[in-house]
Amino acid sequence: MRFxxxxxxxxxxxxxxxxxxxxPISLLYYIAATIRRHIGFLKDxxxxxxxxxxxxxxxxxxxxxxxxIAKDYQDVxxxxxxxxxxxxxxxxxxxxxxxxxxxxDAGDEAYLIAKTLTHATIIVSKKRVPAIKEAKKLGCKIIxxxxxxxxxxxKLNILLKPxxxxxxxxxxxxxxxxxxxxxxxxxDILATEGIDYQREVKxxxxxxxxxxxxxxxxxxxxxxxxxxxxxxxxxxxxxxFDINYLQSQAIKQKASSLLVTQKDEVKLQDCPxxxxxxxxxxxxxxxxxxxISHYIESYA
Length: 300
Hints:
The chain contains ten helices and 13 strands. It is α/β, with parallel strands linked by helices. The protein has an eight-stranded mixed β-sheet, sandwiched between helices. The longest helix has 16 residues, at 23-38. The termini are far apart.
């Protein structure tokens, strides 16, 4: 387990001391997050908006959850910030399934969604209001908002609660919460991993000697789905891979392929090393899907 993951989930004695030392900074973060949540008036865009969010920083399965929900609908737009992309401002990544930009400009998660959903429109923008207006202008009838819990919009709020909970229930940096954990109670739908949604992983193109290469939040959550691997190379979330380094490691460890997640795969499209893919799909509780459907139908 990486230092940062151990610090948040299984801290040793000295990491616990460090978390307590920086607690005043966490208090300031909590105050800022609370003020930001209560600023401004409620905005009604007169279109069904489903927000899929979490309270912890990364690793709860928002992207596959959004993909699984969006599969059931036509004329749907997915709006994301496009974290760690090279482009700036509002960008249409795909329109009704046609991808319009590169992975570098879209960001890894937005590009993965665009690649997977061949009927949807994907927009990235730090400012969600103009993105929602653009989606409506493009004729979209339903909007899925990635990480939109904090925005004061009229919407259906879905919060995902990961199976692995942080050790401390503190905000960043003492803990990994972005807002106070008690806000789980304010969700319209609280989906708990392992109860309301299950991860199913299938290995595509498996080989005899697979080397795990991944740049996702909390990579230790992959462990229960891993086949036999000859080694693990883990990097920070959204890391841009150095192909030359990966080639040298593959040769050194005599790897027959790199085992990667779908999120990692979109950044390795030009990689000369064979890829084995951990294809992830979520099974979502039908009751949750029905609630989402009823919400959308209320706008008909």
